[in-house]
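Sequence only, no structure available. Ideas?
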Amino acid sequence: MQLFDGFGADDSTYRALSLILEAWDEGTESGVPNEQMAYAALFTALTDLVSQFGEEAVVDLANGLERRIRVGEFTLHRTRQ
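Reply:
I predicted one. Tokens follow.
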């Protein structure tokens, strides 16, 4: 299944996402709950971003996530109610 339309197989973003998904699958297959995998991924991402760009830049990024979440940017499967 092509989840990342617009990325070629040699694109570094595609490769990074593919590696994260492989690690996620390995973790859940080992019995780690999805919620713990998500928390670990967020923690890792945020600590890396803070170390690279500083707290204020990451706060700005996090503040922008609310709108993006609400408009469905991160929703893979929408259900109508």
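The chain has three helices and no strands.
Hope that gets you unstuck.
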